[in-house]
Each structure stands twice: as structure tokens, then as C-alpha cells.
Write a structure and sequence with these properties.
The protein is mainly beta. The protein is built from one helix and 19 strands. The chain has one helix spanning 2-15; strands at 53-54, 58-61, 68-72, 75-80, 87-88, 93-94, 98-104, 107-115, 131-141, 144-155, 160-164, 167-172, 175-176, 183-184, 193-201, 204-210, 218-224, 230-239, 245-256. The strands form three sheets. Strands 1, 2, 7, 9, 10, 11, 12, 13, 14 and 18 form a ten-stranded antiparallel sheet that branches. A seven-stranded antiparallel sheet has the order 3-4-19-8-15-16-17, with no helix packed on it. Strand 10 and strand 11 form a beta hairpin. It is globular.
């Protein structure tokens, strides 16, 4: 019986005009409605800067768009996360971050590089050594480029780090040039900081490195290279490690001649 009454009442409320009681008159409210809070923009991420141009240093090319780049007090810090961030068309691909700017004709380029260069024994991909490297870059395209870097990689046979003294790699139209860098231990670099110099004079490229911020230099044999008048130069960081890689660049100097 209560269920039937409820049903009849429901029908009355829905169907019979005047069955519903009149609603009370609205009462004016004295409360104020707070203004809506404007949406806040998400904080800028230092690891999503592919294509950003940094004054003096150049434009960031970060194919994976995952390297953290910070600039403070004249120093530029790159934090490369674990993973395959290599520059080598025949090994780990062309995914390393670099800062490049266009230059025409002859020039001299210098930078100081500081880092731990301890990639650990585990590589980010099978078949590759665990490697860290950072220094100067000369860039025409993905098949023609030069790398001059401080570096270290894990040698499992020795159970220790080894390095090129320094890494001096040139690819021309996809083929490596015989630069013949030596191999030694990281003690070769004499501390955590190395300064590099790259000079173009006509068809010749001359490079050098310094353990005392440029007070004295150790030259690398110059090479002859047929390159276009306009190309790109700058700095870069390479890692094939399962560990992050933090490197600091400072005292960057590009002299156009």
C-alpha cells in the first residue's frame, strides 16, 4: 500500500497542474562570488628545448628532445639522460644533443669542458660500449662532420676506463677519415677540465687541447678537408651509457676571420 501511494503521488507530481506547492520566493543573497582563478601556465621544462637559440652558443639540436640544458653565469650545462645519444652513422645513430651556429670562411673556435666522464660498465644498447664524450663540433650534415672531444668508455676486458687522446673523428660523405687518434687512460687529460681549439684556415683544419685552460696547448695533426664555405660549429655531448651524463661548457669563443 505505501508503494501504491508513492506511485500515485509521483503521477500527481508529474501530470496534474497545480498539484505541486508553489516554490518560496527567492531571497536575495548578500554573499559575493569569488573571481575565478586564472589558469597558470605549466613551468618551462629545461629538457624540452629542441630548436631554442642561446645567444653566443647557437641553436640546440636535440633529436630526442630529452637533454636538460641550463645556462647560468656564463656556463652552459647539459644533462644527458640514460639512453642512446650517439653521433656516429655506422654505430649508434645521430641522436646526440649539440648547439650549433652558422659560420662562413675561416674561423677559430674554443671552449672549456668539465665533467666526470664516468659512463659506468652498462651501455644503453647491446653491442655498444658505454661511452661519454663532449667537446667541439663542426657540422655540414649527418654524413659530414667533425668531433673533437674529451671522452671515456668502459673496457670490460680491462675492467677499467679507457679513452681516445683525444677523440678526433671526421666523417666525410658518410665515410670515416683516417685521423688515427691514440688510445690511453683518462689520466691523459690531467684533471676534470679540458680546453679545446678548432681552427679552419683555407682547406686545413687544425685542432689542439689544453689541460690548463689554454696556457699551454698540445696540437693534433692538421688535416686537409674539402668543405663548403658555410657550415655549422659549436659544442655537443655524446652518451651511450645507462647512466646520466652531466657536462659543463664555459669560456666559449668563436672568432670569425
Amino acid at each position: 500500500m505505501p508503494r501504491r501511494l508513492a506511485t500515485s503521488a509521483a503521477l500527481c507530481l508529474a501530470l496534474v497542474p497545480g498539484c505541486l506547492p508553489k516554490p518560496p520566493a527567492p531571497v536575495a543573497s548578500t554573499a559575493t562570488t569569488p573571481a575565478p582563478t586564472p589558469p597558470t601556465a605549466p613551468p618551462a621544462r629545461a629538457d624540452r628545448n629542441d630548436g631554442v637559440t642561446y645567444p653566443l652558443w647557437g641553436t640546440l639540436r636535440d633529436p630526442l628532445n630529452d637533454t636538460r640544458v641550463e645556462f647560468e653565469g656564463g656556463k652552459l650545462t647539459m644533462t644527458v639522460p640514460p639512453g642512446l645519444h650517439d653521433i656516429n652513422p655506422t654505430l649508434g645513430g645521430m641522436k646526440a644533443p649539440r648547439l650549433l651556429q652558422e659560420v662562413a670562411g675561416d674561423f677559430t673556435l674554443e671552449v672549456t669542458v668539465t665533467g666526470e666522464f664516468a659512463p659506468g660498465p652498462k651501455a644503453a644498447a647491446e653491442g655498444l660500449p658505454s661511452f661519454h664524450g663532449a667537446g667541439l663540433s663542426l657540422w655540414v650534415d649527418d654524413k659530414t662532420y667533425l668531433r673533437l672531444e674529451r671522452n671515456a668508455w668502459w673496457n670490460p676486458g680491462q675492467g677499467a676506463y679507457v679513452c681516445y687522446t683525444p677523440l678526433y673523428e671526421i666523417f666525410n660523405a658518410g665515410r670515416p677519415e683516417p685521423t688515427n687518434p691514440g688510445v690511453g687512460t683518462p689520466a691523459f687529460f690531467g684533471g676534470d677540465t679540458t680546453r679545446f681549439r678548432l681552427e679552419r684556415s683555407g682547406q686545413y683544419l687544425t685542432t689542439a687541447h689544453s689541460a690548463d685552460r689554454g696556457a699551454t696547448w698540445r696540437a693534433v695533426p692538421r688535416v686537409a678537408a674539402t668543405l663548403p664555405n658555410k657550415l655549422f660549429v659549436g659544442v655537443g655531448a655524446v652518451s651511450t651509457s645507462a647512466e646520466p651524463f652531466v657536462v659543463v661548457f664555459e669560456d666559449f669563443k668563436l672568432t670569425r676571420k
